[in-house]
Amino acid sequence: MRLLGIVASFFGPAHGRQHEIGFYFRMDAPPELPGDSFSVLDNNDVICEWIPLAEIESRPVYPLIVGELLDGDDGTVRHIVNREA
């Protein structure tokens, strides 16, 4: 597992903007990944699923900047400030 970057994301509607700091790592997927969709523990309305790396360009993966982090794996750790509408 190797740290690719730290992303400070700002997102949500103007009246309720949210801020998230994410640490993104590159790693090999373990064989026991769930095959079905699952919800996050603190919000059953948020559905997640594991997808192949090749599908990142054709499907929304949030934050949207994560595809750029994975494409730019040159061995450096990047810090990105991401503002989504």
CATH topology: Nucleoside Triphosphate Pyrophosphohydrolase
Radius of gyration: 14 Å
Ranges with pLDDT <50 over ≥5 residues?
none
Work out the helicity level: under 10%
In the CATH scheme, the class would be: Alpha Beta
CATH architecture: Alpha-Beta Complex
pLDDT average, as an integer?
86
Instruction: Give the count of helical stretches.
Output: 1
End-to-end Cα distance: 31 Å
What is this entry, summarized?
The chain contains 1 helix and 5 strands; from the N terminus they run E-E-E-E-H-E. The longest helix is centred in the last third of the chain and has 6 residues. Helix content is 7%, strand content 40%.
List the helices and strands and how they pair.
Layout: E1 2-11, E2 18-26, E3 38-40, E4 43-48, H1 66-71, E5 78-83
Structure description:
The protein is built from 1 helix and 5 strands. With 85 residues, it is mostly beta strands. It has a single domain, classed as Nucleoside Triphosphate Pyrophosphohydrolase. It is globular, with a radius of gyration of 14 Å.
Task: Supply the key terms.
single chain, 85 residues, mainly beta, Nucleoside Triphosphate Pyrophosphohydrolase, three-stranded mixed beta sheet, two-stranded antiparallel sheet, 5 strands, 7% helix
